[in-house]
Amino acid sequence: MAESAALLRTAIDSAGDAFVAMDGSGIVVVWNRNAEELFGHTVEAAVGKGLAELVFPDRSDTRQLLAGNESTGQWRCRSRLRRRNGEEFDAELQVATTTIDDERMTTLLIRDISDTLFAEQQLVQAQKLEAIGHLTGGLAHDFNNILGIIIGSLDLVAPSIDRHPENELLAAALSAAHRGADITRALLAVARRRALKPQPTEVNELIDEIIPLLRQSAGKSIELSFSNNARKAVCSIDAGALNNALVNLVINSRDAMPQGGQILIYTYTTDILPHALSAPLELKPGPYLVVGVDDNGTGMAPETAMRAFDPFFTTKERGRGTGLGLAMVYGFSRQSGGTARIQSAPGRGTSVQLLLPIAATAVTKRRTKGQKESAQELRGHARILLVDDEPTLLSIAAQWLKSLGHTVSCAADADEALGILAEHRFDLLLTDIVMPGSMSGLALVERCRGLYPEMAALVTTGFADGQAPTLRTRAPVLDKPYTKGTLGRAVLEALENR
Predict the structure, then answer these.
(1) 470 pLDDT band (50/70/90 cuts)?
(2) What is the bridge-based pairing of β-strands 339-344 and 350-357?
(3) Which of 100, 99, 107, 59 is nearest to 80 (CA)?
(4) For residue 432, which of 462, 466, 474, 468 has the smallest C-alpha distance?
(5) What is the mean pLDDT of residues 352-374?
(6) Coil, helix or strand for 170?
(7) pLDDT digits (tens, 9 = 90+) for 250-282
(8) How many beta carbons lie within 10 A of that of residue 231, not counting itself?
(9) What are the chain's domains?
(10) What is the rounded CA–CA span in Å between residue 168 and residue 236?
(11) Which residues pair with 271 in a beta bridge?
(12) 261-272 and 222-228 strand pairing
């Protein structure tokens, strides 16, 4: 008999989950080693106590659990349970009932499923943001074309207006159009349709450079510090997009601390292991750089933090935010091959972390502030074939290029462009990507590579429709809406790099 009891005890202790048995009154009679580890109560402390008072924050859960499924005697359920230290967690319970010597007995196999639920929530959130991204990306593409016409038309008419009141109205209209362009860029970042320009970048050096800007954004009442715990971490990212992400996070932290406080920006490296439940589902295994921004502000409730990355969701009062800041941060992280995560609690501040894959390539020298060409430096004498199906944008771009000294021919689609190319030679093909007809702008570039290998190519886009990572392998990309200056600079760079 003693040997059988010892064998049974060994089997119970070797169970992969916490095993608990209780009598008809809910008193614990068996408590294995895994139950000790899961809840923190020893066998001596647990046996003889009511299960409800030991592990259930809400005792009504115990009554429902005990009611169970009388027809089968076995069932599964989920419940919030409590450890000895007061920490609550989500658990799955496999319950069975039996009768021994006319007394009802209940056995429970209990498993902590916190990591599983977290992974499920991540998947739902990623799917929701992907659906929103498709919608906002399409809208932003159309707005970019409209804003390009507005900005270009105002820029062209400006030299002909020399009266003060009209000049002020013109400046206000241009400013509003550029703000609209900023919003569409934000939407494209949310939708992960913006053609980023990633380059191998030493992230800690980049953050060091912009710390003065971040301190200025935080304000005098905020103490901002940077802790670098990652040596020479190189990531393939768009440096400007990371700048914008950090500025957005610092401004959010500042707004959560109206009376002042502290912001800590920090970096460290981590490895994502294959099949790790706690790892974000969307990340591939490998080394990552974590870039974090923590504050000691007001914080958010968990249900609010779950929606923080949603486009247009904001906790700020009306008129103080677009609700796109954190959505842009998430979009940038995902488009860079990583992700973003947020932790927050009321009165305990907020922590936002970007996880960016570490690259094994050398750092590329970046353009520094102040390296902006003058109008004279943007001038050239190239023969350019300009292709766009939007007539007004085509006319504006042509006028800008001619004013910079270039010779320009125009086509409305790829077929017309090929007809012109058959009769004339050009130094540069500048084409929109999305056009009607049998051939897209990218297909036109590929055709011309074979027919006219000496001709440079530059493509423009309102959004890359998911092709942004491959675009730069075919031709440099100019985002819409563009200005005369950005157009002139992009043309010169394309000609230099052909």
Answers:
(1) very low
(2) antiparallel
(3) 59
(4) 462
(5) 66
(6) helix
(7) 998 998 898 899 999 999 999 887 655 455 556
(8) 9
(9) 2-112 (3.30.450.20), 199-357 (3.30.565.10), 383-496 (3.40.50.2300)
(10) 42
(11) 287
(12) parallel
Q: What is the CA radius of gyration of the chain?
A: 31
**Residue 342 pLDDT greater than 70, yes or no:** yes
Of 51, 43, 55, 62, give the one whose Cα is nearest residue 88: 55
Query: What span, in angstroms and rounded, lies between the C-alpha atoms of 186 and 324?
Result: 7
In this prediction, residues 408-434 reach a mean pLDDT of 93
Claim: this prediction has a pTM higher than 0.70: no
Report the amino acid identity of residue 404. L
The answer to whether the CB of 252 falls within 8 A of the CB of 326 is: yes
What CA–CA distance (Å, rounded) separates 421 from 407?
Answer: 14
Residues, the chain:
498
How open is the CA angle 466-117-354, to the nearest 5 degrees?
45
The number of beta carbons lying within 10 Å of the beta carbon of residue 59 is: 12
Cβ contacts of 206 within 8 Å, gap of 6 or more: 239, 242, 243
Phi (first) and psi of residue 235, to 5 degrees: -125, 145
Distance CA 48, CA 27 (A): 6
- Give the residue carrying structure tokens 């157009």: 487
Vertex 394 angle, CA 392 and 397, to 5°: 110
Token digits of residue 172:
């206000």
Q: Is the four-CA dihedral 365, 367, 371, 374 of positive or negative sign?
A: positive
Across the beta sheet with 28-31, the strand order is 28-31, 18-22, 103-112, 88-100, 74-82
The token pair that represents 470 in the structure block: 């491959």
Q: How many CA atoms lie within 13 Å of 184's alpha carbon, on the beta-carbon side?
A: 25
Per-position DSSP letters for 386-450, written without gaps between them? EE-S-HHHHHHHHHHHHHTT-EEEEESSHHHHHHHHTT---SEEEEESS-SSS--HHHHHHHHHH
